[in-house]
Design goal:
CATH superfamily of the largest domain: Bira Bifunctional Protein, Domain 2
Structural class: alpha+beta
CATH architecture of the largest domain: 2-Layer Sandwich
Shape: elongated
Bound molecules: phenylalanine
Radius of gyration: 24 Å
Strand content: 15-25%
Number of domains: 2
Oligomer: single chain
Number of helices: 12
């Protein structure tokens, strides 16, 4: 399978398409019913379950790549074709269809899952004050916990939000209880830029405040999410952790294994990938937002979207999501 996949990618990339005839040859070779891509899918059908799991994603990548090459050539050749018959008439412009960005597609998929569980979607500002990003969330002034989130300040006590938990504070302050919401959005941290981290990224955080909310409600909600998003048999584990705004706090990992090279790398050889932080909302936070802690309790969680998108689409370098390279984005035309 691996060799076939690689050889199709190589052949399709090497294929020179400068005329309409070559474009047709390309189509006949790769994209028709008896073409190489479909042949690959036929063979895929005969693989057993484990193998299918292993190759499914790659197969779709091959298909998208080959289709993108064809579309690209088509738009160039047909777009530049001279259709005038010698009379003074301008050829029409071919405008390419845009497509959804993979990060947006993942956010949308997550949102749909949480909507089915009864969560509404809320948003808030990306430029935040100290109160909403830190103080209300139980980060004491000058406390080292603020170092967990390297902040870009834009003024005194004004910063680019480091997490979407700030939206949770805004919601709690509004005081319309119970709250059952998720807050998707972009957040900023002053981190060294690398294949695995960037100065901005995306989160989907969630907040549930009601009477008698317990840690088991939190676990069940997250189990449900993981089963819907990653598949019913996904193994997960909770690890105790620390966040100033939740007590107790935990992080959740999903098990990918170490068989494929990319899983090995993504999980640093452990097989486990951390996907979210969570916990019971600290009573101090509820009190800061004027919520009666005798009556109400709640849980919160925060998922990192970008890493999950890397995993889902087999993207090795986080930065490629954001440098607007059309060759990269063309692979997602079917989203
Ligand atoms: N706000 C945390 C972060 O950005 C994630 C989180 C959200 C953790 C809610 C616990 C509860 O790292």
């Amino acid at each position: 399978m691996k060799e076939q996949i690689e050889s199709i990618i190589q052949e399709s990339q090497k294929f020179a398409i400068t005329t309409k005839e070559q474009m047709e040859d390309f189509r006949l070779k790769f994209l028709v019913k008896k073409g190489l891509v479909n042949q690959l899918f036929q063979e895929f059908k005969n693989l057993d379950g484990e193998e299918k799991k292993k190759w499914g994603k790659d197969l779709n990548i091959v298909k998208n790549k080959v289709e993108a090459i064809f579309k690209n050539a088509e738009s160039k050749l047909i777009g530049s074709e001279d259709t005038s018959d010698g009379k003074s008439e301008l050829p029409g412009y071919y405008s390419e269809m845009g497509s959804r960005h993979p990060i947006s597609a993942v956010v949308e998929e997550m949102t749909q899952i949480f909507e089915r569980l009864g969560f509404s979607v809320e948003t808030g500002p990306e430029i935040e004050d100290d109160w909403h990003n830190f103080s209300a969330l139980n980060f004491p002034a000058n406390h080292p916990a603020r170092d967990m989130q390297d902040t870009f300040f834009v003024g005194e006590d004004i910063a680019l939000r480091t997490h979407t938990s700030s939206v949770q504070v805004r919601l709690m302050e509004e005081g319309n209880l119970p709250i059952r919401s998720i807050m998707p959005g972009r957040v900023y941290r002053n981190e060294a830029i690398s294949a695995r981290s960037n100065c901005f990224f995306h989160q989907v955080e969630g907040l549930y405040i009601d009477k008698e909310v317990s840690f088991s409600d939190l676990k069940q909600t997250l189990y449900n999410f993981v089963q819907e998003f990653f598949g019913a048999n996904t193994k997960v584990r909770f690890r105790a952790s620390y966040f100033p705004f939740t007590e107790p706090s935990a992080e959740m990992d999903i098990y990918l294994g170490t068989e494929s090279e990319s899983d090995y790398r993504l999980t640093k050889g452990t097989g486990w990938l951390e996907i979210l932080g969570c916990g019971m909302v600290d009573p101090n936070v509820l009190e800061n937002c004027k919520i009666d802690t005798k009556e109400y309790s709640g849980f919160a969680f925060g998922l990192g979207v970008d890493r999950i998108a890397m995993l889902k689409y087999g993207v090795k370098d986080l930065r490629t999501f954001f440098n607007s390279d059309k060759r990269f984005l063309d692979q997602f035309v079917n989203l």
